[in-house]
Amino acid sequence: MSARFTTTALHRIAHGRSGDKGNRLNVNVIAYDVRHWPVLLAEVTAERVAALFAHRGVVQVTRYELPRLGALNFVIEDALEGGVNSSLGLDTHGKCLSYLVLGMEIRVPVEPGGGLPLAPQLQTAR
User: Fold this and answer.
1) How far is CA 96 from CA 37, 41, 66, 117, 121, in A?
2) Which of 39, 46, 99, 124 is the least crowded, having the fewest Cβ atoms under 10 Å away?
3) E-assigned strands of 1-126?
4) For the segment 101-124, what is each residue's pLDDT rounded down to a tens digit?
């Protein structure tokens, strides 16, 4: 019996963090659940991330795998229009650019019962 797949946005199974150093953007993608780690490895490749940032003149994307954390770290060169001191962009630090990656459509196995992976239950402080 082969697994069935469907497509969904990456943010359904992972969250992200991002930051900058000069003209270099750093984006982390972290699985909510370790069972989605193989999906991250297969679907969130350096080539796909480079395609997402092609409009910004990116020249290189390097992916680092952190299996014990269920996380991927992408170092994206020349993504910040020259960096904080040179760019006229609204987000010169690239803090919101992880959302560009988290919006990526990915293939995921269909969960038991035929549905998509459950969205995380976020908790708030009271």
Assistant:
1) 23, 22, 22, 24, 22
2) 124
3) 5-9, 14-21, 24-31, 60-66, 71-77, 105-109
4) 999 999 998 877 666 666 666 666
Which region holds residue 100: left if phi is over 0, alpha if psi is between -120 and 50, else beta?
Answer: alpha
pLDDT beyond 80 at 70: yes
Render the burial of 42-59: b for 16+ CB within 10 Å, e for the rest: ebbebebbbebbeebebe
The structure's pTM equals: 0.82
pLDDT for 93: 63
Instruction: State the Cα angle at 118 between 115 and 122, rounded to 5°.
Output: 160
Q: What is the mean pLDDT of residues 79-96?
A: 67
- CA of residue 78 relative to chain centroid, distance: 18
Report the alpha-carbon distance of residue 102 to residue 13 in Å, rounded. Answer: 9
Please give the full DSSP string across 83-103, using - where no structure is assigned: -TTT--SS-TT-TTTHHHHHT
